[in-house]
Amino acid sequence: MSNPSSGLGPNRASASSAPPRIGLALAGGGPLGAIYEIGALCALQESLDGVDFNEAAAFVGVSAGGFIAAGLANGMTPRQLCSAFIENDSPDEDLIRPSLFVRPAWDEYVRRIALLPGLLAQASLRVLFKRRALLSAMEVLGRALPTGVFSHAPLEAQMRRVFSAPGRSNDFRRLERKLVLVATDLDSGEAAPFGLPGWDHVPISQAAAASAALPGLFPPVQIDGRWYVDGALKKTLHASVLLDMGLDLLFCLNPLVPFDASHSHQHQVLGDPAIPRLVSGGLPVVLSQTFRSLIHSRMELGMKGYEHSHPGTDIVLFEPDQRDPEMFLANTFGYAQRRALAEHAYQKTRADLRSRRSTLAPMLARHGVRLNDALLDDSRRTLVGRKRRLRTRSARTLQRLNEVLNDLELTLARHGA
To answer: Which of 92, 125, 258, 376 is the most exposed place for a label (fewest CB within 10 A)?
Structure first.
């Protein structure tokens, strides 16, 4: 069955003729997260009549989701983002190559190496003149380690070029739509909502780089004398930033979910690879699962809290199926792989909409949004080319049955509640 993402909370009746205030919250996840969100947004944009994400009332983005949110707020459609990031067939100034995420942080390396002679002297003095000072000396030498492996400068420069094109802006205050990119203040641990009053003087490209500065991978970003790192350290989605604006409907996309290997055999029947035990993947897989589990459990708690703190807003969440190994095992730096992953996210989001259409349709209708059933049921639609077909007719039948049963289960649960 599809992932248990759901709409939350009753919305106030749309008695007035004013159009609904719709928002979009995008979580992070590196290049993989950006690929998933672009594929999912393309599916949602074409499948939901009455929704134009470029016309949303407000956007909030964290980490890689910040780049996508900034592009949408600047008028770039989901399909244009797909051309720029996935297919690389946009104008040169719009291209966002994944290689920009992995340029070595040479400045940081040089800065830390320059500290090494002085730190070696301090460590030596501690060892020579203090008993049991070896650990203390190692702590001193630890200051010579770079705070990040990759540089954010190439990506920030490309964002600056993209948002400086005619008709766009790298200034929060010049945008027609509210955009918030959240980072974390390294010294205080507090959220930094760039784009809100008092925070909107910072260039969008710089705020996006700060929001994506995952400690260990990217050095902290200095802005106005403060150092900022990835916004996901504080919260996964930061949806409350938009909910406090009194929205009617909020779409949330979260690319990273923990993988459920115990049920992956169900997807193997449908043509996906199986992962019997995560421990077989070694340390990288174990760390990935740990990180995903931590941020997802925190997001689940936040979503439950929003139901009570903002009952006047309908919230609908989209994320990968936890039993789907393709997004978990993804290699995002090959061109062909990026296309395949974007197509996968596009098709899985369409399947998710079909699986939840009975519960989503009435909730969305309250805001003048309608599921385009004819388009959703058109099996020929693709995002970036020919989609992978399930190997057998029985597998295709099982997939369709899975969607129908999940839709029925959600409908019964809603009426039972």
So the answer is: 92
- How would you classify the pairing of strands 22-26 and 58-62? parallel
Encoded tokens for 369: 């949004």
Question: What pLDDT is attached to residue 366?
Answer: 94
pTM over 0.85: no
Residue 13 burial (C-beta neighbours within 10 Å; 0-12, 13-18, 19+): exposed
- Tell me the range of 87-96, 129-138, 270-279, 374-383 where mean pLDDT is highest: 374-383
Per-residue pLDDT tens digits for 75-131 = 999 999 999 888 877 666 666 776 777 889 999 999 999 999 998 888 888 777 766
Which residues neighbour 162 within 8 Å (Cβ) at sequence distance 6 or greater?
71, 74, 84, 93, 94, 96, 168
Q: What is the CA radius of gyration of the chain?
A: 23
Q: How far apart are CA 276 and CA 368, in angstroms?
A: 44
What is the spatial distance between Cα 207 and Cα 266, in angstroms, rounded to a whole number?
41
Q: Please report the DSSP string for 199-249 in residue order.
A: TTTSBHHHHHHHHT--TBTSPPEEETTEEEEEGGGT-SS-THHHHTTT-SE
| H or E element in which residue 11 lies | none
- Angstrom distance (rounded) from CA 236 to CA 294: 10
